[in-house]
Structures are given as structure tokens and as C-alpha cells.
Amino acid sequence: MKVGIVMGSKSDYKVVERAEKTLEAFDIEYATRIISAHRTPSAAEAFSKQAEDEGFEALIAAAGKAAHLAGVLAANTPLPVIGLPIKSSTLDGLDSLLSTVQMPKGVPVATVAIDGAENAALLAVQILSVKYPGLREGMRSYKEAMAREIMQADQAFQEERND
User: Fold this and answer.
1) Other CB atoms closer than 10 Å to residue 35's CB: what's the count?
2) Would the N or C end of the chain have less CB density within 10 A of its end CB?
3) CA-to-CA distance for 122 and 105, rounded, in angstroms?
4) pTM higher than 0.90, yes or no?
């Protein structure tokens, strides 16, 4: 299992790092690269065309502003591409979100929330769980732990209010 993470700029890493940590929690191998859709378009094309041969099974593309990276990757690979819009401009990331989500027919990109690195990684986990059932069990455990955490927080909140 291997996920490729591509970010358009090194400044995106503070968000991307959270995706890496999430993948690590599921013991998923990853490789993170800096490749710009606009400044290094031939490198983006080459990476996406070779990704499958390099052993990647899903790609996460993190980019801000005119965030075309996910679309460029998706145009050149049959692998699932998850777009991670980065908040990096005066438009609070809305420009990144719209650039990532508004893909033409035939070039799908799954898109998560602005700066939603954990969800990008979790979506990759869920996609890979179709092939690797152990990941599905790990995802079940993850969701059960989230539920327990909320239930404990609610219980503590109720006790505080009743004191």
C-alpha cells in the first residue's frame, strides 16, 4: 500500500504533514513531493503518468490559490486522486476549493475541505480498504474511537453542568 502526496509548494507542508501522520497511523507507506502544476507542468505530468508503475495506489494533491494540481494529476493517471485545497490567499481558500472541485466530465477528483488533510488521508484509507480488508477494520476502529471520545466528552459536559 502506497499513497503519493504531491504539494504545489513547500508552504503547503504544514497542512500536508497532518495527512502523513494519519497515513502513518494506518501503517500506509507514502511519498511526499513538491511539484507545481504551473511552474513544473512537465514534472507533474511525468509523475502522474508514472505513479502507477511506481507502486502508488492513490494520490493526494495539495495546492492553494489556482489549485490545478489535482486536475493535472487526474488527467494523466487512472489512479484515484484526492484534492486537498489549501488556504493560502485572501479568499480564505475558496479559490483553492473551487479550482479543485470544479473538474470537467471524465477527470474526477475527490475533494475534501479546505486544509482537510486528515480527511484526505482517511479517504485514501477508505479507497485502499477495498483491496486491503485490514484497513477497513482499522477504519472501523478509528470511527469507534471517535464515537467513544465524543460520548466521554458529552458525559463530562453533562456532569459539569449538573454540579
Assistant:
1) 24
2) C
3) 25
4) yes
